[in-house]
Structures are given as structure tokens and as C-alpha cells.
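User: My instructor asked us to take a sequence, write out its structure as C-alpha cells, and then describe one feature of it. I'm not sure where to start. Here is the sequence I was given:
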Amino acid sequence: MTTSGYTLLTAPVPQQSLVHVHAGVEELGRVYQPSLAINAGMPQFAARLAMTLPVEEPSWRPTLATARAEFEAWQQRPAVYAHANPALDLWEVVQILRRAVPEDAIITNGAGNFSGWAHRFWRYPGCARSWRDGRQHGLRRAGGDRREDCGARALRGGLCRRRRLPDDRQELATALQYGAAVLILVFNNSMYGTIRMHQEREFRARPRHAPDQSGLRAAGRIVRRLWRRGRHDGSIRKALSQALAFMRDKRLPALIELRTDPEVITPNATLSAVRATARLKR
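Assistant: Let's start with the prediction itself. The C-alpha cells for your sequence are:
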């Protein structure tokens, strides 16, 4: 999964001359055979480069403005909403969250198509500081873990970061016990979205329905549920304001359920488009 989308380098021998720098000697040449392998840490290697290589005006500098413009365009409201007025605009939800929470907020997420909204549209001011401080946390294993729910594991990670608990086997009961005031967003599209997307693409839709989440709602602290009733940016802001105030005053977790449109499966695609593409391939 971590290399299936790579096209720049050819394994095992790249067409280009490859210099591979890695702190772990066992990683050097493990996937790609480099022309030069250097066993060093990234900070040490970068410091040495800064001391020895002259800095000249790069030929690619004019392309930076173009690349930046493309990135900014990519950050705008996605085209998947171009022909629809969604009941819940997840792009707008991310923008509201960014304006409401502190810049140093720590984000954790489970696995699924829903996480693409945060990965793509959440902006971390000061990239180097964000990486060093560890302000975005995903799953520990690519592809998840069959033994437990990925979303629950992401919640545990958030609790551990909030309270610096030594054990990551924590859930809502632990949050209440230790006063871990975390904000929990439940993306509820009434199905297993990622699985449904693959089913539409490969098996012409054998839908699996998500379990009833009433137990989770009862265990957590629901500040407000956002139902599909047209555009409700004001409702999102109100719910978020209530959640943050509850967390601050009660020192307890707050939970907001986002009932999303199951048709909008990713920021780039709808289920109808996935289904149509699958039929054309056949």
C-alpha cells in the first residue's frame, strides 16, 4: 500500500542515479538499489550538505509560484460538490474547525475515506514545527488491525496525547475517568464507506450497513447532532462552540455526530461516478 502509487522510481533498480540516505542501515537498498548509500540521520546529513554544497539560484525556482497556485486551488472547495448542494459540506466543516480550535491542536484519525477530508484540507501552520511536535497522528499499522476497530484505536491515541497516558488501551470510559477533554467527531454515512466504494467498483454494490451507534452516543457526551437539513453552517458553529465550552468547563470529552451524504464518498468522487466507471471498464 505504501508504494503502489509510486511512479518516479523503478524497483529494484531506478533509471536515475539514486542517493539513498537513511538512519537505519537495514533500510538502505531494501527496496531500491541506490548508486550511493549513506547511513546517516536526516538532521546530520542536512547539516553536512549546508556546509559543503554551494547555494545557487535553482533553475526550477520559476515553477514554485505555479506549484503554489496549484496547491492553493487544490485546497478550495472540491469539485465533487460542483453539481450538488450538500446537506453537510465536509469541506466547510474542516474550515470551521480550523478557525475554532487552537493552532497547536493534535489531530488523530481512524482509517477510512472520511479521513481524506482532514488529510487534504487541514492546514498546520509552520510545517517543520508541526512535524516535530507530532500534531497529526494516524494508525500504527498500514491497512489497520483485524483485531480491533481502527476508529477506536484513533480515539485511544487522542486520549493518550491529551493526558499522556502510558497505555493506549483507552476509550471513552477512560476519558471520563481521567478528565481527558478531547473532541470526538463521528463521521456517520450509515455504511462502511471505504468497503462500499470497493464493492461498487469491483462487485457492483453488495452494501454493508454500519452498526447502530446509539451505544456510542449514550456513552459519550453528545453536544449536538447535525442532521441533513440543508446547509447548516450556523448549526456546525453552534455545536462546536458548545462542545469546546463543555470540554473547558467540565473537563470531559465532547462528541459531535456528523451525518454525511453517503453519495459523496471522497473529496474526489461520488458513489455514482465510481459505479459508472466500473461499468465502463467491464
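For the description part of your assignment, you could build on this observation: The chain has two domains: 19-52, 82-281. Try explaining in your own words what that tells you about the chain.
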